[in-house]
Amino acid sequence: MTKASRGRDHGDLILRLRGISKQFGAITALEDIELDVHAGEVVALVGDNGAGKSTLVKTLAGVHQPTAGSIQYLGKPVTLDTPGKALEMGIATVFQDLSLCENLDVVANLFLGHELNPWRLNEVQMEVRAWTLLQELAARIPSVREPIASLSGGQRQTVAIARSLLLDPHIIMLDEPTAALGVAQTAEVLNLIERVRDRGHGVILISHNMEDVRAVADRIVVLRLGRNNGVFTPDNTHEELVAAITGATENSVSRRTARILETQGG
Ligand SMILES: Nc1ncnc2c1ncn2[C@@H]1O[C@H](COP(=O)(O)OP(=O)(O)O)[C@@H](O)[C@H]1O
Ligand SMILES: [Mg+2]
């Protein structure tokens, strides 16, 4: 079932995080994080190494429990105790390692782990479902009977994303989906992300690549040292984004303040 057939309008608020903090012993990985995700939008999560991106995604994936704060999902407060619960509720994650089986074909990989679902299908039905989904996503996979081992990096990413869509999640989180890809394959995956967005899913995209982020994101949320450090759009300049990521803004403000104080002090 597509999002549209569920009667939900694009733009509905799906996920609202407020005051989310995460401590690992003495380390504060996240502090007072705020994040909203709507249906049919791509929210990019960017920040330097150690900014807290992975910790935030793992918190939403049910891998980590926040130390403080609240998660509202479809208008209700929720606890995401386990990865299984997050997935069941409709929060899907494509981790960077993709977790695909090299020796199995596309169909087998798409349905891997879904064996216990009530809608479990037979081989022919699975093949048809796989083919239909990939067609819908305009994915460039020559055959669904191709083993993963013979696919390109972009095609693997496509299979992993398609797999996460089978349970029709409200939110799909992608961790560095273009990190290992060349130019053409990156373009393919970015197109796919747009199609996923257009189906009405809320997409959280983690990426180091500002060009990719600016190409597909509706909003760009910057994390720095575990805290929010601004929300941007692709209309903001590259320099503005980089300044928020690196903290150069803070430096230039304090430098400016210092200069004013200097002037005033004579
Ligand atoms: N399991 C963990 N135990 C202890 N510290 C962690 C753990 N996971 C992440 N951290 C720390 O939390 C901070 C944020 O890390 P992370 O979320 O991986 O950032 P990013 O993904 O943006 O690079 C870092 O200081 C990191 O060392
Ligand atoms: Mg990370």
TrEMBL record:
Q: Which domain of life is it from?
A: Bacteria
Q: Which residues form the ABC transporter domain?
A: 15-250
Q: Which Pfam families match?
A: ABC_tran
Q: Which InterPro entries match?
A: AAA+_ATPase (IPR003593), ABC_carbohydrate_import_ATPase (IPR050107), ABC_transporter-like_ATP-bd (IPR003439), P-loop_NTPase (IPR027417)
Q: Which GO terms describe its molecular function?
A: ATP binding; ATP hydrolysis activity
**Keywords for this entry?**
ATP-binding, Nucleotide-binding
What this protein is called in its record is: ATP-binding cassette domain-containing protein
